[in-house]
């Protein structure tokens, strides 16, 4: 079990994370927050790369600092920016990392080949990595994190650069991995964790805003999410008044998905089940009530309405 | 003990700690060993740790940048030979001792500096830091290897100067070179481990050539006499002290954690 106990982290005088208390058991944990919310800092602390300024992190009851390389032997880590030696082939790089992870040569060769096949890089294993696309590099990163069959797997934005097919494959891999180990991944793409994560952690202002099963997180907005159609004339006033989660231009107005705090809904409003993405957009909306711009688009593909999507 | 416990069970008396099955000797030893290991963890000795790391990694993985290292060593050696040729033409024995003392750490400085300069800037830093043998543990083994290689190259260089000039005592030259190398290497690692800023770290490195060149220029006669007049056992003492401090610094690298801001 991995335990974060009253852990804070400061950069100079700036607090990045404040008094976090978290527990991780076997399963998949999705760390969801917009960029700059402290996800990477938390993951670096969990990987033992960054000591907490205050508090402590324990694995099976022992502080990470005391466990030192014993912890690293059980750890798989994919940093946000996965570095590599451009002149290496993925096979050579994996064998090097396997060696410094403490694996013997035979085991290193076998696992490297197996994992490169698993991330669909079997045919490219002898090509130099400088010729690889971003998605291929990221897949090498995912494979290397699994080399030592880690008990704790920490992945910082693992799906960056992956295409939809690769994302799907990655999600099913996550589900399998989470059965018998701790898997913690950070993302700002809700669909990455919606189906695969056993628990979601929302970070806000350097603190844990919520930690629950995806269904539990969705309950935060139960009975408050609606969809309705608004004419052009009322659209601006409507946007001012409600927290808009998504909107789509239609021939005779706008279809809005929004949150209402009012106890009674208007007859023309259609109540809908809140999704994880709704919660994400609502929690991280800005001071004017606007949702994070980049998150509005995944719901409705571009070009689906005459006027397109708007924020 | 066992019969006493059985009697209690038969008599259906209230259960006590005595009713718990007493473990056998083997189980007791295992539990004691596990408690002692947790309470008083035994760390392998530094040589055993370094040896184990080398056996695990092998030469191939330890020196990924072997081409660059060999290039820097050959280039450095070429420059040293060129400077030595000039010195052999124009200098006496005292000046040659001063020359050996000043230039002996330069090969080590060159290969170590290119390694440390981009250590934390490398893209692979984070991935390697999360592995069993992290960047600084690898660095420890590399530094020890660098110093051994430089010791051998310097010895060859001193032998060549001694043979060519006919003025340099070989034993004094070798001790001068080795003590200079280890004194510098110890100061180098000390600066790298404890320097709070990049400027602070590199100041330690720059101090050596500046101090020696400064003394040579300011008081040439006194500097030369000092180096050639000090008894050989004093150099032996400096060598042993420098080597001991250097190995101590290399050991500290094993457990080193950078202060990240």
From TrEMBL, chain A:
Ranges in a coiled coil: none
Residue ranges constituting the ABC transporter domain according to the UniProt record: 2-230
Organism from which the protein derives: Saccharibacillus alkalitolerans
Keywords for this protein: ATP-binding, Nucleotide-binding, Transport
Protein name: ATP-binding cassette domain-containing protein
UniProt similarity note: Belongs to the ABC transporter superfamily.
Family annotation (PANTHER family): ABC TRANSPORTER, ATP-BINDING PROTEIN (PTHR43335)
GO terms assigned for molecular function: ATP binding
UniProtKB/TrEMBL annotation, chain B:
Lineage: superkingdom: Bacteria
Transmembrane regions listed in the UniProt entry: 69-89, 95-117, 138-163, 175-193, 230-248
Keywords, comma-separated and alphabetical: Membrane, Transmembrane, Transmembrane helix
Protein's name according to its UniProt entry: ABC transporter permease
Origin species: Saccharibacillus alkalitolerans
Lineage, uppermost ranks: Bacteria, Bacillati, Bacillota, Bacilli, Bacillales
């Amino acid at each position: 079990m991995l335990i974060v106990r009253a852990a804070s982290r400061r950069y100079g005088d700036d607090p990045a994370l404040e008094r976090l208390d978290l527990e991780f058991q076997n399963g998949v944990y999705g760390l969801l927050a917009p960029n700059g919310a402290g996800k990477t800092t938390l993951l670096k602390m969990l990987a033992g790369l960054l000591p907490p300024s205050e508090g402590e992190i324990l694995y099976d009851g022992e502080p990470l600092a005391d466990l030192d390389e014993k912890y690293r032997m059980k750890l798989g880590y994919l940093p946000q920016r996965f570095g590599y030696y451009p002149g290496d082939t993925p096979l050579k790089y994996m064998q090097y990392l396997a060696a410094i992870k403490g694996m013997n040569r035979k085991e290193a060769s076998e696992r490297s080949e197996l994992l490169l096949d698993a991330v669909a890089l079997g045919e490219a294993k002898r090509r130099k990595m400088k010729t690889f696309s971003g998605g291929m590099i990221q897949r090498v990163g995912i494979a290397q994190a699994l080399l030592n069959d880690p008990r704790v797997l920490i992945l910082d934005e693992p799906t960056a650069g992956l295409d939809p097919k690769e994302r799907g494959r990655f999600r099913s891999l996550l589900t399998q991995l989470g059965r018998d180990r701790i898997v913690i991944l950070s993302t700002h793409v809700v669909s990455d964790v919606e189906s695969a994560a056993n628990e979601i952690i929302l970070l806000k202002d350097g603190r844990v805003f919520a930690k629950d099963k995806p269904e539990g997180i969705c309950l935060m907005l139960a009975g408050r999410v609606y969809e309705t159609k608004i004419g052009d004339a009322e659209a601006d006033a409507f946007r001012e008044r409600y927290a808009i989660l998504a909107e789509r231009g239609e021939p005779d107005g706008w279809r809005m998905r929004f949150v209402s705090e009012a106890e009674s809904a208007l007859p023309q409003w259609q109540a809908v089940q809140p999704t994880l993405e709704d919660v994400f957009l609502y929690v991280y909306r800005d001071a004017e009530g606007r949702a994070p711009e980049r998150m509005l688009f995944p719901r409705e593909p571009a070009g689906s309405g005459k006027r397109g999507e708007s924020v | 003990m066992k019969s006493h416990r059985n009697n209690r069970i038969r008599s259906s008396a209230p259960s006590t700690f005595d009713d718990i099955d007493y473990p056998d000797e083997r189980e007791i030893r295992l539990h004691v060993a596990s408690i002692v290991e947790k309470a008083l963890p035994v760390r392998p000795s530094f040589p055993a740790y370094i040896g184990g790391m080398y056996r695990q990694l092998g030469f191939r993985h330890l020196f990924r940048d072997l081409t660059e290292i060999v290039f820097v060593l050959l280039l450095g050696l070429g420059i040293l030979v060129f400077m030595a040729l000039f010195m052999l033409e124009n200098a006496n024995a005292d000046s040659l001792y001063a020359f050996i003392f000043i230039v002996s750490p330069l090969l080590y400085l060159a290969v170590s500096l290119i390694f440390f300069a981009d250590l934390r800037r490398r893209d692979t830093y984070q991935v390697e830091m999360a592995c069993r043998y992290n960047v600084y543990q690898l660095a420890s083994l590399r530094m020890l290897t660098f110093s051994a290689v430089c010791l051998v190259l310097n010895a060859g260089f001193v032998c060549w100067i001694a043979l060519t000039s006919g003025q340099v005592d070989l034993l004094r030259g070798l001790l001068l070179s080795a003590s200079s190398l280890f004194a510098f290497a110890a100061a180098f690692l000390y600066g790298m481990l404890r320097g709070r800023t990049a400027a602070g770290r590199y100041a330690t490195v720059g101090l050596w050539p500046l101090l020696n060149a400064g003394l040579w220029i300011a008081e040439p006669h006194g500097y030369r006499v000092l180096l050639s007049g000090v008894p050989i056992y004093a150099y032996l003492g400096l060598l042993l002290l420098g080597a001991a401090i250097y190995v101590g610094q290399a050991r500290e690298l094993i457990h080193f954690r950078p202060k990240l801001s």
